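Here is one chain, start to finish.
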Amino acid sequence: MPPKPRLPRLTLFTGPHCSLCDVAKTQLAAVRQTHPFDIVLWDIRSPPAGTSDADANKWRRAYQYEIVRGVACLSACC
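Its structure:
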């Protein structure tokens, strides 16, 4: 049997108290019903465990003063 294909992964960069992020999460949940993908929520002020300091600092510097709400990165290979 061939290996199961990996699902695309979407990383949603969020911030605390982000109402637009809440809307995006709701809409993404609906899309996942018909188009499966993995989702990672990344709070730029508290990055996921295992994140390198360099990556955490990169995103914090990019969005610490102005968070572009609901920025997402979709990758089919990661």
